[in-house]
Structures are given as structure tokens and as C-alpha cells.
Amino acid sequence: DSICQAYEDEIQSLKEEIQLLAEKYEDIQQESTFFSEEAILTSIFSFEREFQGEFKGHEPPPDLKAELEILETDLSFLMKFIGIQFTSHSKKIIEKTKNRTLQKHRISGTCHSMSFQLEFQLIEMQNKENVCSAVTDLSIVMDSGEDSNVGKFLSSIEERGDILTFFKSLSSYAEWYEHRRCAFQHFK
After folding, report:
1. Confidence at residue 119, expressed as pLDDT on a 0 to 100 scale
2. I need a surface site. Which of 33, 57, 88, 142 has the fewest CB within 10 A?
3. CB atoms closer than 10 angstroms to residue 84
4. Which of 16-20, 54-58, 63-67, 144-148 has the highest mean pLDDT?
5. Are 122 and 105 within 8 A, CB to CB?
6. End-to-end CA gap in the chain
């Protein structure tokens, strides 16, 4: 009887340990992750080293390497073309069900000389045919000086949850803001 009790106690202990590990794993999955350009490059280089180590010095498939180089070139071109540099991004899954996912995102960056930060929730709902996404609780913090028109504009974007319009407008506004700043600096 005492041997059976010892086994049952051990089984119960293992069940509790499994439960704790499962909770810890879930917490790790839910944690926010921050990505900077340096972190991304470091991850890419470590992945390449691991990949090469797995195949004992063999080169990665040429198609994969060429595709990665093309994507890096395209990303660099886009960032230079529109002037937006993303400095960090975090994503946290708040709720996940079979048909619905709620994520919280935080994006920081600069556009020309202006810094910005976005926080929003993204709701994705999936039905049989497609996935629908909606942005809620959009909050924008931007270094725009004391321009009340920009504040009104940002408030209207936050109300509508229109991130695309924000980025389109940010690019041209920041470019002209930089031109005005340089012109005023010249006359000083």
C-alpha cells in the first residue's frame, strides 16, 4: 500500500511539474518580442551559422540565398524611398480562439527626422472563405512640435484606426517638415 502511495505521489508531482512547464511555455509564447535592425541582423547571421553548421559547411541552397538578398535589397530600397525606418516592434497575443485572434502591437520608428510610435490592437476573424482584420485602440505618439493641425489629424486617424493613411501622410509631412526646418535653420 505504501509503495502504491509513493507511486501516486510521484505521478501527482510529475503532473504538477508538467502543468507548471505548460504554463511557463504559454507565458513565453505570450511575451512581447522586440526587434531592432541590429537584432534582426544578429538573428540572420546566427541562423546562417547554425544552418551552415547543420550541413557541415555546405552552402545554403542558392535559390534561398538569392531570395533573401533580393528581399533585403527591396526592404532597403523601400525604407530609403519612403523615408521610414522601423526601430522596434513588439507583438503580444492577448486572446486566441479557433476563429478569432486578438494581438497587441507596438511599433516605433523614424521618418526623416521625426520619431513616431504606434500602439494598436489587431483583431483577426476567420470564417470558411477568408480572414477579416480590424484595427482598434490605435494610439499615435509623434514628435510634431506644437502644430495643432497635426494633432487634429492624428486624432481623426486614431478614431478611424486608419494606419495606412497615417504612413502615407507621415512620409510626405516629415519630408516637408525637414525642408522647412532646414530653410529656417538657413535663415537663422
Report:
1. 93
2. 57
3. 18
4. 16-20
5. yes
6. 93
Q: Report, as an integer, the average pLDDT of 131-148.
A: 80
**The predicted structure's pLDDT at residue 1:** 76
Q: What is 10-67 written as a DSSP string?
A: HHHHHHHHHHHHHHHHHHHHHS-----HHHHHHHHHHHHHHHHHHTTTPPPPHHHHHH
Query: Would you give the DSSP letter of residue 112?
Result: T
CB of 63 closer than 8 Å to CB of 78: no
Cell of 40: 534582426
pLDDT tens for each residue of 54-86? 555 555 566 788 888 888 888 778 777 777 888
Q: Which residue, 101, 86, 104, 58, is CA-closest to 167?
A: 86
Q: Which of 170, 180, 37 is nearest to 114 (CA)?
A: 170
